[in-house]
Amino acid sequence: MEDKYYQVILKKYQNKESDVGGLFQAILSIGDEVGLEKALGYLERCVIEKRLAWLDDSLDKIEKTGNDVEDGYRIFYEKYLGISVPKDGEVVDKTDKKMVMRWWNYCPVLEGCKKFGLDTRVVCKKAYHKPVQVFLSRINPKLKFDRNYDSIRPYTSYCEEIITLEE
């Protein structure tokens, strides 16, 4: 049965660009049967698989800067997500070992959460936090991702995210 739920969410996730509502409806429907956390876990798996496939195809083709934090930022946000500063956000702190960004770009997850009455703090943590960590770890296992769940839309005007390089 679990594989069936995963397949439903996978199909909706693959079609999310044209139908984000369908994805969120599927998550809520499956969540009614198995719990929202488990349904979001299926989505998390889909997101990880998509991001790793992209990295498998693209990482060797992207020139590195030599700064792991900068590379993590550039590859994830600019190359993969297609967002950049200053159009979509700002960098509020930057060192060789840490970068703090605030994003206000269009976000289908935010729109889906607002439309279906879901809390972005829950959805982003359960379905989208680990996929960023897995993505960054593929670039460098010492890169760590964090999101400030006290500074996340729609509760603030931006989503604050942090990349650090662990010792």
Describe the structure.
- 56% of the residues lie in helices and 14% in strands.
- The protein is of the alpha+beta class and 167 residues long.
- A hairpin with a 3-residue loop joins strand 1 (89-94) and strand 2 (98-103).
- Helix 1 (2-14) crosses helix 3, helix 2 (20-34) crosses helix 5 and helix 3 (36-58) packs parallel to helix 6.
Order of helices and strands: HHHHEEHHEE
- General form: globular
Low-pLDDT ranges: none
Spatial ordering of strands, largest sheet: 1-2-4-3
What's the assembly state of these chains?
single chain
Helix content: 55-70%
**Percentage beta strand:** 5-15%
| Radius of gyration from CA coordinates | 16 Å
Main attributes of the structure:
167 residues; alpha+beta; Muramoyl-pentapeptide Carboxypeptidase, domain 2; four-stranded antiparallel beta sheet; 6 helices; 56% helix; globular
